[in-house]
Input
Amino acid sequence: MKKLLLLVPVALATWFCSSATDDIAKGPGSETTNGLALVDGKPASYASVALRKVDFKAAQAVEENALVVADAYADENGLFDVKVPADGKYRLTVVHDGAAFSKIVSRGDFGENGAVNDTVNLVATALMAGVVDVPEGSSNVWVGVHGTDVLVKSDSNGWFALPSLPANDSLRLYFVDGDYKESLGEESLYLKPRESVLKDYRAPNPDEGKIVVLQKNGSPAAYATVALRAADAKAEKFAVQNAMVDSDVRTDANGRFTMEWPEKGEYRLTVVSDGFAFSKVFDAEDLPDLDTIWISATASVSSKVTLRTVDEFLWVGVYGLDVLVKTNDVGAYVLPSVPAGDSLPIYFVTADSLNSLYAEWNTVAESNSTQFLNPVKVLQDFENGGEGWYLNTDSLKKGTEIKPANSVKEGIVYDSTRKSKVFHGTYKLANDDYAWALVGTAFEHNMKFSEIDSVVFYAKGNGNIRLSLENYIDQSKNLKAATEWIPLSKDWQRISVNPAELCVGAATTESCFTSWSGVKSWVKQFHIFVQDGSEFYVDDVTLYGALF
Output
């Protein structure tokens, strides 16, 4: 929404005057100020309009959630009249369906003789909640805003909420004891549209300077575990650790703790208490400013990672936490308790070399979630030159050609339909049943692909195409599992392959089961073959259920 504008001349038509109330100070020389109320440039039809002394407070302890009780209403065109006394300052407030304008004004703001017409632009209201000390002998505290009618009652612990406050102007909160006799002070407040803030107005106590950890209901998280780790820290000892963190310190009975903060760097601060946690990465310079931490229900994360054939398991942890688990022999794992609502950078370390990082990925878990998170591996999208991919043809038969002849990079072009870079190749096969041409890649290690869900890629062209997962060592050791030939067309098509459906093996007599079962734990090459045409395009080769 647009920033509030005051004193913008407009042409006005029909008007009505607000009724004078005791809440609006009377004074000599009162003049009529005409206004137009807008929301997003449209009339704020029948908006509530009120004028109060700048220091106005509710006369009695009666709860009022409305920002103001209207002195008058705008008409259907958003036009309104209001009388501005000549002496003193006043708060003019206009409210309409979750939007408001509120500003301290005086007679002088409206020009000589009150003749200038004004447009007020309403913006979305804000919300604030807070806590204040309840004095001894009181059951609650009353909280209001000077110059408005809103007045709310805290609970016995001092917690309160002001559900709708005007934005973009400095407000003054006032606090009164439960009997509405003794003032308990004032606080200033400035809010942005749609902002939601939490304020702690409690007086300092012997624990001043300590961070307080609170549960969802506002009660302190007593004796909670607190730990600070470098944001990129991995487990120090590679042994199963189901606990999220080991404690550096613990909160006291009131949920408070202190800690010596580092001077520079990024750190993950984690607080854990009985299935609830807070965890977030901070710049060191921001840590001393922490005052209140809210913990929420944890989650569990289960997923899988693709193992090399030689791997029996991998270690799985979260950067900045102490938790560490092992996968099973097919790469499945569970992180039993992790913080929710924050990005979790998960790392994988090989079992044979504890310092060898295997893979990484990021995820976010929701509170109480136990959902299985399926990883996705983009094998090649051709955006960065097709690194690691190659072209090849049958070397036993003369006459087969594929272009580009030297590298995949030379065949990468921009495709306007996919709005991305893709690979484009042309080919001519020799007149022989064995002749072939391909684009593909080889993995550094033999891979266990037994747990991948599907292989997806996009293709178009004028021939046929097939996917083949292989372990070719030499002519005597050639394991493969491939699709049948898939016809291409001039339009892009999404080709999705379930590995269990890879039927064509090295020998035509092999069954589907035999071909895939033979290679699935030993995949070394990933190939896309073409035939019976002259050109083909490939893009976004993706493995679902794979991470390596």
User: Anything to note?
Assistant: Residues 459 and 538 are 5 Å apart (CA to CA). Residues 1-33, 506-510 have pLDDT under 50 and may be disordered. The longest helix spans residues 512-519. The first strand starts at residue 31 and ends at 39.
